[in-house]
Design a protein that fits this description.
About 20% of the residues lie in helices and about 35% in strands. The chain is α+β, with helices and mostly antiparallel strands and about 240 residues long. The protein has one domain. The strands form 3 sheets. It has a 10-stranded mixed β-sheet, with helices on both faces. The protein has a two-stranded parallel sheet with strand order 1-14. Strands 12-13 form a two-stranded antiparallel ribbon. The longest helix is centred in the C-terminal third of the chain and has 16 residues.
Amino acid sequence: MGLIEDSQGIYVNVTAGKLRKKCDKSDPKAKKRVEVDDNDKETIHWERVWKGVEGLIVGINLKKGRFGRQYVLIVQKDNDVFNLYFNYESKYSTTLIERLPNVNFSKPITLIPYSVKDVGKEHPNTGVTIWQDEKRIQSFYRKLDDKGYTIGWLNNAPEKPPYDPDNYNENEGKKYKIDFYEFLENTLEDIQQKIFEANPVDYEVDDEHGLPANEKTMDEEAGNKAPPLKAEDEH
């Protein structure tokens, strides 16, 4: 494998339904985001924001750093390399890994994260959508009905226990999530091999400088450069 050292990539986080890169408040393209925790404490973020990214998937890694475990999806567009960070325990990462086995890695994709508020639910429905050849890539592990709802599981994925609100076991639900995260992690090597077969260059993220988008080094390396995204900056 050909190793590219210190790839000078562009680093963005996948969070709150968008691709986000920390920037200074004075940046003319800065967007303000207010994050409220469970104790009603507000944190203000200044970020550049994009709807999605397009290009070839040329690598994926699982990294552990000061912010916990994260998948790093590496997308290349012409001479630009983009490192997209997904928190390990999130629907952004699970929906990503679920779809990758159905991707043709020799062709470009369009990836768009989403965060949609569900009526009557505390947390929004989140994940990523991947398009290729004008078709939406579906999960490799879910059997879907005509409306896109999961009605079963495929390819040895762990079966999700049926939800019974009257007899819900919280510990059982947590155990299933852990089992599902580990199951998807165990598919990573096969995905990496398929990516390498289609694009035989080993893109490695610099552990020191590749952690994650709110690191100072990201701005130092990427400067004011923006990814060639499918949609323009969000307003």
